[in-house]
Design a protein that fits this description.
The protein is of the alpha/beta class. It has a single domain, classed as Maf protein (Alpha-Beta Complex). The protein is about 30% helix and about 25% strand. Strand 4 and strand 5 form a beta hairpin. The longest helix is centred in the first third of the chain and has 16 residues. The protein is globular, with a radius of gyration of 17 Å. The chain starts with 5 loop residues before the first strand and ends with a helix. The model has no long low-confidence stretch (mean pLDDT about 95). Bound molecules: inosine 5'-triphosphate. The site of inosine 5'-triphosphate has 21 residues, from strand 3.
């Protein structure tokens, strides 16, 4: 069964993302694999969509095959959508990024936020084969809680719950996350058009 899976390059340097992607796509007949050595895209885009294209094309060129990329981030309403596309570079470490966000948000009563994910599937000539997006709504907690997931999960309380994403199991997160919403649409497209 494993051998019959089709492999698609997933253009990331973030192992947590690859892990989530392969958990979400379990049973789909698709396995996502890391790009070849030398993958080092420069994310010069001004939108999630542009940066996901840049990463996917870089990996597709290197591998000579189609590649999928995810550009994602946390958009906080009171901070005019920041850190947004700068989420991974907001500060030096994951903990410092959380601390900085909590400090910057402290003066505001509005703690609404959303996770956004833009995915683009690109071929080695740079043609976009398909693109999808997913959003997950919630609010920023006053203090961090939980150890699952990655990034800003410990301070993101999912709408309709009292728990942060980091307090959810991987399975629970993968049912509702921005990444799973985008990826499930992308998997449907791949199954209908490429398999
Ligand atoms: P690649 O570009 O190599 O894929 P990256 O981590 O740099 O890895 P992005 O540029 O897309 O990826 O930035 C995404 C950042 O947004 C990520 O590093 C986290 O800080 C945050 N983020 C995205 N999805 C998240 C999630 O599901 N949970 C928590 N934080 C998330």
């Amino acid at each position: 069964m494993e051998n019959n899976k089709i492999k698609i390059v997933f253009a990331t340097g973030n192992p947590h993302k690859l892990f989530e992607i392969n958990e979400i796509s379990k049973g789909s007949g698709i396995e996502f694999v890391l790009p070849p050595a030398g993958f080092n895209p420069v994310e010069t885009g001004t939108t999630f969509e542009q940066n996901s294209y840049i990463k996917a094309f870089e990996a597709a060129k290197l591998s000579g095959n189609i590649a999928l990329a995810d550009d994602s981030g946390l958009c906080v309403e009171a901070l005019n959508g920041e850190p947004g596309i700068h989420s991974a570079r907001y500060d030096d470490t994951p903990q410092k990024r959380i601390d900085k966000l909590l400090a910057n948000l402290a003066p505001f009563g509005n703690r609404k936020a959303k996770f956004v994910c833009a995915m683009t599937l690109v071929d080695s000539n740079g043609k976009t084969i398909n693109k999808e997006t997913g959003e997950c709504y919630g609010e920023i907690a006053n203090v961090q809680s939980g150890h699952h997931g990655f990034g800003y999960d410990p301070i993101f309380i999912v709408e309709g719950t009292k728990t942060t994403m980091a307090e959810m199991s991987e399975e629970e997160k993968n049912k509702i996350s921005h990444r799973s919403i985008a990826l499930n649409k992308m998997i449907t497209f791949i199954k209908n058009n490429l398999m």
